[in-house]
């Protein structure tokens, strides 16, 4: 039990990344307290657990109140001051990929970015004449004049479909990744704008929740 009057300062970022499935407070928080014993015991406190069989990235939303509750179970008299976020995300990214696989992904991504940038520049110069650009590329590479639908146009259509699917993070009704989709992010931003507008409108009218003017 801590002595009365002791203060523990906590600072937690909005996005915390861990690579072990058992998450302790010291893994996500910066702490300061005059009592070193309190710091060590609080740091060893288990906050949450991810499945040890899950090899994919996972995320969990936590609140500073959960951490305060855990700390007060062991130190009821300890005063806690939070200097960081009130709500934060813990991302579990296990070390499952080999280094050569990461290098391969970087190489593939670099090739895609190179050809994608080249295609964007060429279509810009051609005033977005994509069909004409494909015909000219097909003629340059194969030496034959393209007639009808060629392999470049088919690949372009397939690439558009796959790109949209990954961008919106959905394959049918199933999400591809655990991250929020762009639509969910846009809706959340809209909700925040609506809430801000309601608050601003209420402040301008000068009325509280009970309908009375503020300050009465």
Sum up the structure in keywords.
three-stranded mixed sheet, 48% helix, single chain, alpha/beta, 216 residues, 7 helices
Could you walk me through the main structural features you see in this protein, from its secondary elements to its overall organization?
Helices cover 48% and strands 19% of the residues. The protein has 216 residues and is of the alpha/beta class. A three-stranded mixed sheet has the order 4-1-7. A three-stranded mixed sheet has the order 2-8-6. A hairpin with a 2-residue loop joins strand 9 and strand 10. The longest helix has 27 residues, at 99-125. It is elongated, with a radius of gyration of 27 Å. The two termini are 45 Å apart. The mean pLDDT is 80.
Helix segment tally: 7
* Rg, Cα atoms, Å: 27 Å
Sketch the major β-sheet: 3 strands, mixed
**For the largest beta sheet, what order do the strands appear in spatially?**
4-1-7
Shape: elongated
Order of helices and strands: EEEHEHEEHEEHHHEEH
Strand element count: 10
How much of the residues is beta strand, in percent?
15-25%
Mean pLDDT: 80
Low-confidence stretches: none
Helix content bin? 40-55%
- Span from first to last CA? 45 Å
The assigned structural class equals: alpha/beta
Summarize this entry quickly:
With 216 residues, the chain is of the alpha/beta class. The chain has helices at 25-28, 36-43, 64-74, 99-125, 130-142, 151-167, 182-205; strands spanning 7-12, 15-18, 22-24, 29-32, 46-49, 58-63, 79-82, 87-92, 170-171, 174-175. Strand 9 (170-171) and strand 10 (174-175) form a beta hairpin.
